[in-house]
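User: Here's a chain of 122 residues. Predict its fold as tokens.
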Amino acid sequence: VRLVESGGGSVQAGGSLKLSCEISSDTFKRTAIAWFRQAPGKEYEGVACISTDKTLTYADSVKGRFTVSRDDAHTLSLQMNSLKPEDTGRYFCSMSNLHGTCTLKTTSYRFWGQGTQVTVSS
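Assistant: Prediction complete.
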């Protein structure tokens, strides 16, 4: 299984970015998928995830600003609006191989991408 993120960059506060993750697995639609981020010197933080029944879950810190979605072409996306400096970090997509119900815990996911950097300046 291979996950490749793209779409990161540098923006000013209030700006938008859209991240994409290409997943090379036929189990894409039968397992939970998620976005995490890691700021310098901090632990991984769950951002958003999609369960197999298409239920969406968001961290409180991004609710109303971020939108997670997936399509039938093996792509997971994260639309990020109204970005804040505290959104700065490396963003990773991940996929479980066991769970259909998604969580924002790293231990629920087996497969990870290399990440894409997002920097938000004030």
